Amino acid sequence: RRKKIVQECERLMDKPENIRNIAIAAHVDHGKTTLSDNLLAGAGMISDETAGQQLAMDTEEDEQERGITIDAANVSMTHEWNDKNHLINLIDTPGHVDFGGDVTRAMRAVDGALVVVDAVEGAMPQTETVLRQALREGVKPALFINKVDRLINELQEGPEEMQRRLLDVIDDVNELIRGMLEEEDYDWSVSVEDGTVAFGSALYKWGVSMPSMEETGISFGDIIEMERNDERQELHERTPLSDVVLDMVAEHFPNPLQAQPSRVPRIWRGDAESDLAHQMRDVEDEGDVVFMVTDIGMDPHAGEIATGRVFSGTIKKGQELFVSGTAGKNRVQSVGIFMGGEREELDRGVPAGNIAAVTGLRDAIAGSTVSSVEMTPFESIEHISEPVITKSVEAKSMDDLPKLIQTLQQVAKEDPTIRVEINEDTGEHLISGQGELHLEVITTRIEKNQGIPVKTGEPIVVYREAPQGASREVEGVSPNRHNKFYISVEPLSQDIVDAIQLGEISNDMPELERREALQEAGMDKDTSQNFEHLFGTNILIDDTKGIQHLNETMELVIEGMEEALNDGPLAAEPVQGALLRLHDARLHEDTIHRGPAQVIPAAREAVHRALIDSEVRLMEPIQDVRIDVPSEYMGSASGEIQGRRGRVDDMFQEGDLMVIEGIAPVEEMIGFSSDIRSATEGRASWNTENAGFRVLVDNLQREKIGEIRERKGMKQELSPAIDYI
Ligand code: GDP
Q1: 208-258 pLDDT, tens digit each
Q2: Looking at ligand 1, which atom is closest to the CA of residue 204?
Q3: Is 360 left (phi over 0), alpha (psi -120 to 50) or beta?
Q4: 19-26 and 369-371 beta bridge pairing
Q5: Measured in angstroms, how far is the CA atom of residue 31 from the centroid of ligand 1?
Q6: Complex ipTM, two decimals?
Q7: Most-buried pick from 240, 361, 542, 588 (CB within 10 A)?
Q8: Where along this sequence does the record place binding of GTP (predicted)?
């Protein structure tokens, strides 16, 4: 059976008009996993009985245990619609916003997003997040409203109430969609009449849509009656969920031939008139190979598996391909597809328009562009949030150390929102990620899947340092006193910081383009013309003119500044949002006297002095928090936010629950999940989402700086110049 399906997939691979690349995206617990299992069972990939129990998409053991989907796992299946068989490549996306990076990457590889919303809960914060990710990548949405059985059995709703409830959900989703689309975009709102909305029960495996109701003659009244009379098996047989949803997918999501012409300009900023651009837009299977990696997985036998989308050419065993961001080429060892979570190697190549699983790409990481010709890589994938929390991990047994190091390197490759570092002083390994749960999942995975017992430290929040005003021009002097740099610092505008974070400004883009992007973000023309270097979200502007030897020394100046920005003057935390202006410099005639040992400390000193003069402050990461609770627990739940230096912004009724929305510092949110559980006797559901950095209140600055310095083994007293704190 499996072999037959593989053969059919291979046949369909060459017919891009019959291919649909899709993702399922949902708020946690709304039923994405159950729906995915339905689709796989419907396509004959897993048995009907095991659907819902097998959790075929959750391949990592810890995901099955926790019942949440973490890694983007991928499957291909076939489905007949309109008398033609279709190849449907499904990319799974994680449901928790702690894993936002994975969701964005998955969206890059697909053309349609099936958004699952629980009929009782309605659109939730992560519904909004995943929708935004889809629309920003130019991915078309369709809606599946799940758990309709609950409206019938738990809420005892009649046909009219039910219809009203479903329309409310659709309206909410459409309001979100319309708010997110830019004017030039298409109208991608969803509607029952168009057939871009389906609803049903993933648990009981039935579903309906306008076209399916017309075809089967099933009415709302029939559904209610059959649910109430426990005739669910019959309901499933008469209107199987997988058919209804896969029909919707085949009919309403674009195939690669329709999608790539508009998606390529959106996600790739190379020359739009080049041959390569044409090949990608035209899904040219005989052209140059362009493969975008969205995920790296590990196979105990085959090693690293790069999953991604082929945009042009045909990727084949034996090809030597460039990997963006690295110098050499990698040789493709095998190509294949995913079937029910398992990889199936193919003897043939995988052509443009398909999702492929490729081994041999040793240097690729999630986000890499792999190609047969050197090319501009796909725009760097935007990560919605930077790491905000760090934890140390140590192997309990020294014998496990090499294996631990290897595993950590692997983890960093699979998930670019994770950072792994070694603390040079203590030798301990530090992993940084999106939140407490994110790190917990990673360490569980190391312990359980790799069998390495580890000790972990307390989670530590990552801070930033940022200038608060404009500094005067200050001097940095080299140890031999023969080299001097004169610089000032001022805060960058939020628009410019946003543009940097969106990847619109980078060091390696053409100068003219960068100048335009800077001006568009609000930088004045003269300043933008003197752009010299970008460090994180900080920019160096070189306002000097005709200083001898400066050009050849600039690299060292940049190195010194980079050190100063990586370790800010307050607590050696990274500096963000600073515009550095180099006004003047004195350099020794003789190269020997302006080497690294002289220039680097001088540049570093200049930056730190200017930052201090700009009244640099510690910034702390904050999170948006939303709690849903029965009203009797409202007081204790909102107390959990307020007691954490947080702020409640809004409280309102939604359905039978109260919703509390607010913000709180990430540091104070450590331990929140168990506290809220006991405060509400487990009746609350909650979400957090990283919301950037904000200045730590003045009366905590000195204390917090002291704490961080102590932890880092730095001396306690601050430079007297920092007395403004
Ligand atoms: P995910 O987190 O979005 O992957 O959600 P799951 O598929 O794991 O489902 C979360 C919970 O909701 C599980 O306990 C499911 O059994 C349950 N569930 C999923 N679909 C339905 C449904 O249609 N009706 C009901 N009553 N429960 C459902």
Answers
A1: 999 999 999 999 899 999 999 999 999 999 999 999 999 999 999 999 999
A2: 23
A3: left
A4: unpaired
A5: 4
A6: 0.99
A7: 361
A8: 26-33, 92-96, 146-149
CB–CB of 228/153 below 8 Å?
yes
Q: Is the dihedral of CA 240, 244, 246, 247 positive or negative?
A: positive
34 lines ligand 1 (CB under 6 A): yes
* Alpha carbon distances (Å) from 441 to 48, 63, 100, 118, 438: 30, 9, 14, 25, 5
- What number of residues does the chain have? 725
CA of 69 to the centre of ligand 1 (A): 12
Taking CA atoms, 549 is separated from 241, 321, 467, 607, in Å, by 71, 40, 30, 20
- Alpha-carbon span 487 to 474, nearest angstrom: 6
Burial 589-598 (b: 16+ CB within 10 A, else e): eeeeebbeeb
Q: Is the C-beta atom of 126 inside 6 A of ligand 1?
A: no
Q: Which atom of ligand 1 is nearest to 68's Cα?
A: 2
Q: Which residues of 441-463 are buried (b: 16+ CB within 10 A; e: fewer)?
A: bbbbbbbeebebebebeebbbbb
127 alpha carbon – ligand 1 mean position (Å): 15
Cβ-proximal residues to 662 (8 Å cutoff; 6+ apart), any chain: 624, 625, 638, 641, 646, 647, 648, 649, 650
Alpha-carbon torsion 161, 167, 173, 179, what sign? Answer: negative
Q: What would the two tokens of residue 294 be?
A: 């969205």
Q: In which residue are the tokens 């059995």 written?
A: 153
Which pair of tokens denotes residue 667? 């540091």
Residue with CA closest to ligand 1 atom 15: 31
Nearest CA, atom 16, ligand 1: 203
Measured in Å, residue 203 CA sits from the centre of ligand 1 at: 6
Q: Which residue has the tokens 């990673």?
A: 442
Residue 142's φ and ψ, nearest 5 degrees, are -140, 160
Beta strand ranges found along 41-196 (DSSP E) = 74-81, 84-92, 112-118, 140-146
Q: How many helices (H) and strands (E) does the chain have?
A: 24, 32
Residue of 24, 29, 55 best suited for mutating to test ligand 1, as the one with most atoms within 8 Å of CB:
29
Decide if 388 contacts 435 (C-beta within 8 A): yes
Looking from the CA of residue 28, the nearest atom of ligand 1 is: 2
Q: Sign of torsion, CA 356 361 364 369?
A: negative
Determine which residue's CA is closest to atom 11 belonging to ligand 1. 29
Known binder of ligand: residue 282? no
* Residue 533 CB–ligand 1 contact under 6 Å: no
CA of 64 to the centre of ligand 1 (A): 13
397-452 pLDDT, tens per residue?
888 888 888 888 777 777 767 888 877 666 678 898 877 877 887 888 788 777 88
- Residue 127 beta carbon below 6 angstroms from any ligand 1 atom: no
* DSSP notation for 273-314: TSHHHHHHHTT-TTS--EEEEEEEEEETTTEEEEEEEEEESE
Is 27 annotated for ligand binding?
A: yes
Provide the strand spans (E) within 341-388.
342-346, 350-351, 355-359, 369-371
- Is 351 marked within a binding site? no
> Is 396 assigned to a binding site?
no
Model pTM above 0.80: no
